[in-house]
Structure formats: C-alpha cells, structure tokens
Amino acid sequence: MIKVFLCDDHALIRRGIRDTLSDAADIEVVGEAGDYGELRQLMREKTADVLVLDINLPGRSGLDVLHALKDEGTAMRVLVVSMYPEDQYAIRALRAGAYGYVNKGGDPGLIVSAVRTVAQGRKYVTPEIAQMLVESLTAPAVENAHEKLSDREMQTLVMIASGKRLSDIAEELMLSPKTVSVYRARVLEKLGLTNNSEMTVYAIRSGLVGN
C-alpha cells in the first residue's frame, strides 16, 4: 500500500485529489495539511511514501518546502501538483528535488499514475516536460533573464503579471507587503525593467502567463 500525504491550502482541491487517489486500491491518503506548519506536524505524527504538494502555499511556498525536505534528506518522495503550467515551474520543481510534476487541470488519472511512479523511486514527467528537458539539453546555452530569479521572486513575477496587487500577493503568501515589495524590486532590477506594465509584457512574451 502506498501511503500519501496531501499538502494544499485549498480544502476543496485536497478533497478532489483525495477522492481520485482513494479510487486506487493500492493508494491510501493518510494525512492532509494546508501549509508547511501543518505538514511538519503531520510528519512528526505519521509517515508516508509520497507527498503530493502544491506550489502556491501560504507562507513557505511549495518550492521552499521542496528545498527544506531535500536538505533534510527525507525518504518521502514529492510529487508536485500545481495549477501553474509545466513551462513555469516544472523544471524548477525537479531541480529542487521533486520526483514529478502534474498540472491540476489535466486528467485526474495522471495523478494516480504519477503517485505510483514516484513511489517506486522513478521520476514522473509528462511529454511536455520531457520535451522541455530535451530542448534545455540541446539548445545553445542562452539563459533567459528570469532564470536568474529566486523561486520566490519568480512567484512574485508571475502573480504580478497575472494582475494581482501587492497587498493580495502578501495576503496569499502570508508575507508582509514590505517583503513583497522587496521581491518586486529585485525582479525589476534583475530583469532590467521599471514598472509592473513592463513586467507583465515580459512575462507574456516569455510564456510565463497567458495574454
């Protein structure tokens, strides 16, 4: 039996994933968490083979959690399930230690296949991610400016470009508005931009958000 933890701040989404996984006879959801703090408490009380993790968590993001678990050397394998398209976060998640990445908007059955694959210690990537990996290996070594951004800076860029205000971002990520402003300033500096409009145009042209 594959034991699974779910970590997503939306209870309705957790329920949907839990119901999908519960239909598989060889998978059991043994615990749920809405943020990193709840996940740490869960890990003290129980063990699991696979953690199904959302990227967009309040406080410490899913990428932060991945880095923390990787540094600790935990045996639990992580499958990232996110609303963000593969081209935004998949490669970052895999580099941070994830064993797989699945888009929430895809076929629910993919999550079951992904959990089984990850539980076996194998990487799970969609054809889209596989293509991105091949292109990254064969393309000339030209770095996009946004690849220099930290995980949190990247998250801030995508959220601003998606039309969210700094106050909304601060509330969603459980950060102070001042901290979000610092991330915004770093993004502008690293990308050589001057305002939110230029940031949005950059994100659209780079395929980080839809137009």
From TrEMBL:
The modification 4-aspartylphosphate is found at D54. The keyword Membrane does not apply. It comes from the Bacteria. Residues 142-207 form the HTH luxR-type domain. GO terms for biological process: phosphorelay signal transduction system; regulation of DNA-templated transcription. It comes from Piscinibacter koreensis. One of its GO terms (molecular function) is DNA binding. Transmembrane segments: none annotated. Coiled coil: none annotated. This is Response regulator transcription factor. Residues 3-119 form the Response regulatory domain. InterPro entries: CheY-like_superfamily, NreC/VraR/RcsB-like_REC, Sig_transdc_resp-reg_C-effctor, Sig_transdc_resp-reg_receiver, Tscrpt_reg_LuxR_C, WalR-like. Keywords: DNA-binding, Phosphoprotein, Transcription, Transcription regulation.
